[in-house]
From TrEMBL:
MF GO annotations: (R)-2-hydroxyglutarate dehydrogenase activity; FAD binding
Gene3D superfamilies the record matches: 3.30.465.10, 3.30.70.2190, 3.30.70.2740, Uridine Diphospho-n-acetylenolpyruvylglucosamine Reductase, domain 2, Vanillyl-alcohol Oxidase, Chain A, domain 4
Lineage: Eukaryota, Metazoa, Ecdysozoa, Arthropoda, Hexapoda
Location of the protein in the cell: Peroxisome
Main location: other
Annotated catalysed reactions: (R)-malate + A = oxaloacetate + AH2
Protein name: D-2-hydroxyglutarate dehydrogenase, mitochondrial
Amino acid sequence: MIFTISNIRKFYTQSVLFKNAIQLTKDRFTNLKRGSYAVLNANDVDYFKKLLGDNNFITGEEVKAYNEDWLKTVCGSSKYVLKPKTTEQVSEILKYCYKHNIAVSIQGGNTGLVGGSVPVFDEVILSTSAMNKIISFNKLSGVLVCEAGCVLENLMNYVQNKGFIMPFDLGAKGTCQIGGNLATNAGGLRLIKYGSLQGSVLGLQAVLADGQVLDCLSTLKKDNTGYHLKHMFIGSEGTLGVITKVAIHCPNAPKFVNAAFIGLKSFDKVLSFFSLIRKEFGGSLSSFELMDSVAITSVQKNIGLKCPIDDNLEFYVLLELSADNNFINTSIQEVLEQALAEEIIVDATVGDQPSVVQNIWKIRENIPESFLRYGYVYKYDITLPHELFYEIVPEIRKRLEILDVKAVSGYGHLGDGNLHLNVATNEHSDKIVSAIEPYVYEWTTKCKGSISAEHGIGLLKTKYLKYSKSDIEVDLMKKLKNTFDPKKILNPYKIFPQDDIN
């Protein structure tokens, strides 16, 4: 079974541990205080029902799934979910909420790791899942225009059938939505070749807190007319406005894809191999994924997948090349032979058939689920300089060696410096959290890294924002928030520590 968010959710749903462990966010974080927002009354309910219709106004037991994040770490107490189908409906919702001081939690696919897409208290939930239409695709320019609720995998399949690819790929692609991808500035597996998501987004449409529609849905690749306001919403995590439509540039699909799985003895060898690959293949390099031995052992033990090469090495790399000619097939074999002769690598397997490439990727894709099989996972998504990419992992192992920990692993996108630090245990423990936080963020800051590589700040990292942003940066961010959303009704309690923004 390949890792998907739906698989993870199924695992959690079946877990007695997590059925009992979920706790309301307001009870778990007692320092948080509900803002002075209105409580929905009968008139409010009637308004939203009339606007959206009964099928798109959700209440009762069905709301529970929208209140919880998929890792079951945070849980709100909202009673209502609004599912608009058009930008105009989003505009009417926010216009009403702004006038009546109703707090709104913005939710896409709800696949984040930092509690950014679920309510903290009783905020009304605005789900974009019903806004899932593909508006247009221009085969000449490669520009896709779609609504924010489109699931990433559906978009990937759509453009692939036309000979193109989405410029990013995520493990959560079967559930995550393009609007949420933009709102968190998602990274993923292809960043090393196609760059960050910001560079691929040509335009977007967003609804502001007071209901005004900001239409920056340009499909032009060059537009040098003042401020590019689209960038205000990419990475804003729903705190400045609700993204409703997106224009994104899609590259032509490569004609040939080649994947290799490589074993190495040390992290120094990994860096040497990375340098060699970058030198030899440049623009053909589409993924360079690092996995440690703990991750490989976990996949073999908990998922039942066999490592395709020697499984007694310290590090493994999944390398993917893509190009419009098949020189990469011969070239990668020659480079691997060279690396073997120079003792940079120890073992390798390579393939260019789609089924072989898919099988090679299964190891990497199943790592997150394999750790969840232990019971509970503390996940840290950080960016570090390449040469320091793995150093935090043994440091955390030392700090946790006297505690009941099943596995401490580091894996992720070495190509862009994004480390996924995972600590697997049987159940949640405050002692383990205290041993990791804020140490991991202090260490990251000393290394000139970022405390969040892909998932944003959300709720869970608000008190650590200072580790990656200077005082002047945070001050400017607050001013933007207060300008775009002076009543602070959009995704309250997220990004900023509560005392700093209220």
